[in-house]
Amino acid sequence: MISTGAVLPAAAAGALIGLAVRALLPARRDLTSALNRLDVSTASTAAQPASAPAAGGSLQERIGAYLLAGFGGRVALPYKDLNLLRISPAAHLGKRFLFALYGLLLPQLLQALSAAAGAPFPFSVPVVLSLVLGCFFWFVPGKEVAADAAAARLVVRQAVASYLDRVALARIANSGAAQALTQTAEVGNGFIFVRMRQVFHEADLSGVTVWDALKQLGEELDIPELTRPADTLALAGDGAAVYTTLRAQAQQLRKAQLSDAKAQANEASEAMVVPVAFGVILMLVFVMIPVTFTILGN
Fold it and tell me: Which residues touch 2 (CB under 8 Å, ≥6 apart)?
């Protein structure tokens, strides 16, 4: 007969698996949440811990909001990466918590199943596995965010290189620094151009210069490619000198893009070494097995 001590951990772990699967599924967001995420006024505050849970948010957002309200100052989160990816800190923290909880209770589920089968593991085995898996799953969402943010910054770097060329042409055509920045940002449709237009509009309403707003955006998203041209245009010197500086910065960005592309190609080649080697070894094994049996049979 199955004891209650074995059933309860299994039931708790089963419920946790359901919660983890629910957290992995994309949440259905309402229109208000989507518009708030695109709004500059709310996007600028995304780098700060939330103080209250969102009423209409997903499960992980509500859990993360409660955790931020209680332990927001003690948890280090990649706010700049989250702001770049337009992920709320509450959703990220809630996902990390659910993942860690899943890792903690998964060995308990295995222990309950083995106890139900009459062959339980030693007590230390599930405890150690719980700690290891809990720590591992806690860091998994952070690694995903870092990788996605790095890929997003590569895309932004490509867009900024084109943006600098257009701003340089506008400056050499005797356009003002503010006019060159704002009018050039109207051309692109990418994420970074949308954010720049929002920031420039907010700066116009608040009386802040557009180059200061661009620099603030670069610091907020951890994109130095935006802060350097902002410092250059803040000087508002001679048009030809600014043109040369901006074109040089755009050329440096393109060289950095080429280096990044080569590094990614090398990483892809290195990643293919193990699968290719394994395939070759497996093919040799299948080829040599009949020959070996033939030789041994003779």
Answer: 116
The band of 14, judged by pLDDT with boundaries at 50, 70 and 90, is low
Residue 72 has what DSSP assignment?
G
Q: 10 Å Cβ neighbour count for 84?
A: 24
Instruction: Name residues whose C-beta falls within 8 Å of residue 73's C-beta, 6 or more positions apart in sequence.
Output: 49
What predicted TM-score, i.e. pTM, was given to this entire model?
0.64
pLDDT in tens, 176-217: 778 888 888 888 788 888 888 888 888 888 888 888 888 888
Length of the chain, please?
Answer: 298
Cβ-contact 113, 8 below 8 angstroms: no
Q: For residue 183, which of 44, 238, 193 has the smallest C-alpha distance?
A: 193
Q: How far apart are CA 108 and CA 126, in angstroms?
A: 6
Res. 12: pLDDT tops 60: no
**Region class of 236: left (phi > 0), else alpha (psi between -120 and 50), else beta:** left
> d(Cα 184, Cα 166) in Å, to the nearest integer?
6
Output the pLDDT for position 19: 53
Within 10 Å of residue 212's Cβ, how many Cβ atoms?
A: 14
Rounded to whole angstroms, the Cα distance separating 47 from 113 reads: 43
Residue 209 Ramachandran class (φ > 0 left, ψ -120 to 50 alpha, else beta): beta
pLDDT exceeds cutoff 60 at 43:
no
Give the domain ranges of the chain. 4-143
What is the three-class DSSP state of 112?
Answer: helix
